[in-house]
């Protein structure tokens, strides 16, 4: 199907609603499958979780109560090097992927023991195929000499890594447009009307398509019921601090602090249920900074250059929703809060599933019906 005008509407094979990290990764995968894709994006008035995240490609601990989620997380981590290389080859943009392993630093023995027990259970559930180590302070210091004396230890996973999320979004967007993709940010999608041949979508302008993929983050709450699906999502705020450029001292990402390719220091991991308030508060920023200084005392003298808040897209159990509509064939719902980690999975196997329009029993565990059973 090509983009033409029909009764005042533009046409695409697939209309994908939401131009963040999740949406653009799937859009690239659909293009790879030969589909003409239009991304309908609200523009800069949107909540933009993709521009406020921490940039981790994180494996350890993901899926501790859902082995299938651990499986797709690890699959995505394995796919990431090829994905990053293909983006650089096609756009010239280096997304700064590093996958040398990552550490989750713990300040108390109790915290360290709890994480070790969790990862141990995941190791057993995976039949022994789940790499991790529990490190004491001496072992942590061998990897990060600048670690603070009050750190009890860390858990280590060799599959962890990080990227520059802004460069990732830029690279995916450039590649999508270079391959003939359309980005329409003339307005918010208000209604989706199913009809026998597909869907008509009303936004700033109208679009007709055979398939529609909902990747609108928290906006999926209102859009999903229009195509017979459910998206019980809630916002969870995270605040992030960024320090000035400093000499390289952190070769591995951690769950709370990472050093970017430019040398700046990114600090975060707060979690707040405050509705749709994406602002910052002095109290939370102080707690974030205090923990970071305990982890890395050298940060005491580093100047902060900016801070922001962003809203995570959370389901009740924290796991994604991947679901095709049975009442409106051709409609799909995709929502998660790990858009960076899962980007390679979204561009690959998940986009292939949508493009094939075939039932995949392995994805049943991610249906939204799990919240009503």
How is this structure best described in words?
By secondary structure, this protein is of the alpha+beta class. It is 29% helix and 24% strand. The chain has 2 domains: 5-52 and 166-232 and 317-371, FAD/NAD(P)-binding domain; 100-160 and 234-314, D-Amino Acid Oxidase, subunit A, domain 2 (D-Amino Acid Oxidase, Chain A, domain 2, 2-Layer Sandwich), CATH 3.30.9.10. The protein has helices at 21-32, 67-91, 109-125, 137-143, 165-178, 220-223, 282-295, 343-356, and strands at residues 5-6, 9-17, 37-40, 56-57, 102-106, 133-136, 153-157, 161-162, 182-184, 191-195, 198-202, 206-214, 234-243, 257-259, 265-267, 304-314, 321-324, 331-335. The strands form 4 sheets. Strands 1, 2, 3, 9, 10, 11, 12, 17 and 18 form a 9-stranded mixed sheet that branches. Strands 14-15-13-16 form a 4-stranded antiparallel sheet, covered by helices on one side. Helix 2 (67-91) crosses helix 8. The radius of gyration is 21 Å and the shape is globular. The two termini are 39 Å apart. The relative contact order is 0.20. The model is unreliable at 1-5 (pLDDT under 50).
Which short descriptors sum up this protein?
373 residues; alpha+beta; FAD/NAD(P)-binding domain; D-Amino Acid Oxidase, Chain A, domain 2; 2 domains; nine-stranded mixed beta sheet; 8 helices; 29% helix
